[in-house]
Amino acid sequence: QVELVESGGGLVQAGGSLKLSCAASGRTGSTYIMAWFRQAPGKERERVAAVNWSGSTTTYADSVKGRFTISRDNAKNTVYLRMNSLRPEDTAVYYCAASTNGWRTYDYWGRGTEVTVSS
Q1: What is the rounded average pLDDT for all residues in the chain?
Q2: Do the bridges between strand 113-118 and strand 10-13 make them parallel or antiparallel, or are there none, so unpaired?
Q3: Which residues are registered as beta bridge partners of 116?
Q4: Which of 7, 28, 17, 16 is nearest to 82 (CA)?
Q5: Of 17, 21, 57, 70, which cross-links 49 as Cys (Cβ 3.0–4.6 Å)?
């Protein structure tokens, strides 16, 4: 079992920055892929970014490329999402997720942290 706890959300003006953190505990050695998802009101959940175990491979949604950066520190069992040049359309609840077997399916989820970007 893996527990994930997100932090770092909040209210920020358009153009500003935030850094989200996701602390993992439990069987963290199995979390090969870590990802950030988001879900805005009335919209489907989308994967924003993902990173492999070593951090050597990352993937981003087109909507955040060049603005968001995902990273992980396995020594601290933490994954980060640095968000720059935030836009009102980035407003959503952001969830951390962990996969034990690939990029497509995620076995463990955090409860989310809310990000609101004001115009």
Answers
A1: 96
A2: parallel
A3: 11
A4: 17
A5: 70
Q: Which residues of 81-108 are buried (b: 16+ CB within 10 A; e: fewer)?
A: bebeebeeebbbbbbbbbbeeeeeebeb
Q: Which residues pair with 94 in a beta bridge?
A: 38, 113
Write the single-letter amino acid at 116: T
> 92: which residues sit within 8 A by CB, 6+ positions away?
38, 39, 40, 43, 114, 115
CA distance 74 to 119: 36
- % of residues, the chain, pLDDT over 90: 92
Interatomic CA distance for residues 6 and 119, integer angstroms: 24
Distances (CA, A) of 95 to 37, 119: 5, 23
> Are the C-beta atoms of 19 and 83 separated by less than 8 Å?
yes
